[in-house]
Amino acid sequence: MNENEIAYKVIGLAIELHSDLGPGLLERAYEECLFHKIIKSGLRAEKQKPMPLVYEEVHLECGYRIDILVESKLVIEVKSVAALHEIFISQTLTYMRLGGYKLGLVINFNERLLRDGIKRVINGTL
Q1: What is the pLDDT, as a whole number, of residue 58?
Q2: DSSP codes of every residue in 35-57
């Protein structure tokens, strides 16, 4: 599967999850439940994937973590906030650049309609 196919499947799973649980829960709850649905669907995923910072000869284990990485291709940043701010997009794009990933999704579960809380983040060309 390519990045777009994986993203399409994950968005469907996120919408299903949001339909079942609705908005208003903690970010961690959505992250755990989405991870469970992704694994159950047959996709490979890692949660809280460490993202080291390597700059020139400096290798830092700074505690940066990708919420969910699917099929080693798609970065997912899970949020449950009043509004998605540009910093969340920037954070996701930085993780993608550091890890060499092409596509990311920022998913804010604290929306009445989940489609209003999903932002695609692209690093380079897809």
Answers
A1: 86
A2: HHHHHHTT--EEEEEE--EEETT
